[in-house]
């Protein structure tokens, strides 16, 4: 997994792959949490804008994945 992503679409694809792998029991809960936190910390400008997920992240990831991500990163959205 990369730490820095070039575009929001690249970041969204990585989020989708990671969450899907977790749901398929390929990735453990601890790996999911640490990976999402590092993605968020290193790409915060691509993740959030004005306290909400960016439009591309919302469109590409969908509600179910973003609910999980929101719980991990602790946003108030």
The portion of residues assigned to helices is 55-70%
Residue-averaged pLDDT: 92
Compute the CA-based radius of gyration.
11 Å
- Spatial separation of the terminal alpha carbons: 26 Å
Strand content: 5-15%
Q: Helix tally?
A: 5
Largest β-sheet summary: 2 strands, antiparallel
Protein structure class: mainly alpha
Element-level helix/strand string: HHHEEHH
Number of strands: 2
Trace the largest sheet across and list its strands: 1-2
Globular, elongated, flat, extended or rod-shaped: what is the shape? globular
Q: Segments where pLDDT lies below 50 for 5+ residues? A: none
Descriptive notes:
The protein is mostly helical. The chain has helices spanning 8-23, 29-42, 44-47, 55-61, 63-73, and strands at 48-49, 52-53. The protein has 5 helices and 2 strands, in the order αααββαα. It has a two-stranded antiparallel sheet with strand order 1-2. α1 (8-23) packs antiparallel against α2. The model has no long low-confidence stretch (mean pLDDT 92).
